[in-house]
Amino acid sequence: MNYDVNLVRENFPGLKRMKGGQAVAFLDNPAGTQIAKSVVDRMTDTMVHKNANLGGFFGTSLEARSAVDAAHRAAEIFVNARHEGEVFFGQSMTNLTFAMSRSIGTTLKEGDEIVLTRMDHDANVAPWLMIAEDRGLKVRWLDFSPDTFEFNLSDLNQLLNERTKVVAVNYASNVTGTINNVAEIARLAHKVGALVYVDAVQFAPHGLIDVQALDCDFLVCSAYKFFGPHYALIWGRKEHLKTLRAYKVRAASEDLPWRFTNGTTNREEVTGVHAAIDYIAGLGKVFGGGPSNANLRARLAAGFEVMKVHDNMLAGRLIEGLKHSNRVRIHGITDHKKFDNRVSTVTFSVDGKHPDEVAKFMADRGLQVWSGHNYGLEPNQRLGILESGGGVRVGPVHYNTVEEIDRVVDSVDQFLRAN
Ligand SMILES: Cc1ncc(COP(=O)(O)O)c(C=O)c1O
Q: Among 116, 198, 222, which is best to mutate for testing ligand 1, by the most ligand atoms less than 8 A from CB?
């Protein structure tokens, strides 16, 4: 079946908002997508019918347990985990990273080194800086080019040595949209025995994650960026999760993944993440053209392919439209031939204007976009826009339309004419 964006939008009641008689365009997706109705339905079902403690002998508990177990299996398939028990859930990527960095931190000592990047969201920077302060670690920084918006991985080689214990890196940037070569970063880091901790929050809505191919050690992402609820998941290599210190109560299980799951499982969120994974797989089934009995991983691959074609088409149209003005600076890859190296998250500045002015102008016209640094303190600093308020960020996803993108471009034109 040909891709049908209107059919897709039927599953997103949040997109039906109106302003001044005009449909609102939701384009703040890099901050969090709208939630699919099928996800809400699954969460409601969990809250109504599966609301009991896990591990009991009675029906409600058994059903709750099997729904939560199924969500773990789906999440393992989502990231292509090698072993059962390698994925667990948590409130947010930030929370999981503070927790996991604390566990990893127990293995680090004064004089050890960690590598952070100038491209990362603060959630993959600040937790490590705090561990570095606590443990007396040396922090080394991997820079990116403000011209190509990419790392030069020979720089990483210069930073690594036998004292390097952790490399924390984003899979895709929430500011520039760059997709990084995590497999190569992991290969270089592993040569010196360092762990590789990957923030896949911005990549997860746009591409199929494969932790085995990336060969990293930990990877985190958040379901509210891929049409699910405000909840996150982390994958870690079994050997690390089994041996790392888990900060847990004594009564809790030592088994994986439970030794890292603190407190009563938030089953409605967990099953919501499962439903979001099923939603993407469903796109693959409906529009991907594969065999109808394809397994979940194959349907996910097809679903991501369907989304990628649409996302990239919209990002290309947006970038082309914005390029027309020499007062607009796009802080990311603009060459179509290099679109495999970026997601559809587009940040730009209008020379001499505060990004809030642009975002407000757009909001008045029913275009929902964000302005600011988006917690990308390091990349905004590196791009030279932190002091001037950051950028304007527009992030189309598979439910956005060509008309919405054209409205964004038109409103930037109008803003420029009026200012
Ligand atoms: C790249 C990136 N990393 C981390 C985060 C933080 O995710 P969470 O809100 O789940 O903590 C975000 C949120 O915008 C992000 O874009």
A: 222
pLDDT tens per residue, range 1-52: 899 999 999 999 999 999 999 999 999 999 999 999 999 999 999 999 999 9
CA–centroid distance, residue 60 to ligand 1 (Å): 34
The sign one gets for the Cα dihedral 316, 321, 323, 327 is negative
CATH fold of 41-276, please?
Aspartate Aminotransferase; domain 2 (3.40.640)
Q: Which residue's CA is the closest to the ligand 1 atom numbered 15?
A: 201
pLDDT of residue 292: 78
Confidence band of 168 (pLDDT split at 50, 70, 90): very high
List 64's β-bridge partners, or say none: none
pLDDT at 148: 98
Q: What is the mean pLDDT of the chain?
A: 97
Which pLDDT does position 410 carry in this prediction?
A: 97
Residue 94 CA to ligand 1 center (angstroms) comes to: 7
User: Residue ranges per domain, the chain?
Assistant: 5-36+308-418, 41-276
Q: How far apart are CA 265 and CA 280, in angstroms?
A: 24
Distance CA 268, CA 280 (A): 19
For the chain, the first-to-last Cα distance in angstroms comes to 45
Ligand 1 binding site (Cβ under 6 Å of any ligand atom): 31, 92-94, 121, 123, 170, 174, 199, 201-202, 222, 232
Environment class of 294 (CB within 10 Å of its CB; exposed 0-12, middle 13-18, buried 19+): middle
Beta partners for residue 117, in sequence order: 142
Q: Which of 98, 121, 221 to mutate to test the pocket of ligand 1 (most atoms within 8 A of CB)?
A: 121
Specify whether the CB–CB gap between 113 and 138 falls below 8 A.
yes
Q: Give the mutation target among 89, 94, 221 for probing the ligand 1 site: most ligand atoms within 8 A of CB.
A: 94
CATH number for the 5-36+308-418 domain, one of 3.30.1330.30, 3.40.920.10, 3.40.50.1820, 3.90.1150.10? 3.90.1150.10
The answer, yes or no, to whether the previous bond of 257 is cis (omega within 30 of 0) is yes
CA–CA separation, 418 vs 365, rounded Å?
A: 14
Q: Please give the order of strands across the beta sheet that includes 232-236.
A: 87-90, 232-236, 218-222, 195-199, 164-170, 113-117, 138-142
Check residue 289 and give its pLDDT.
Answer: 85
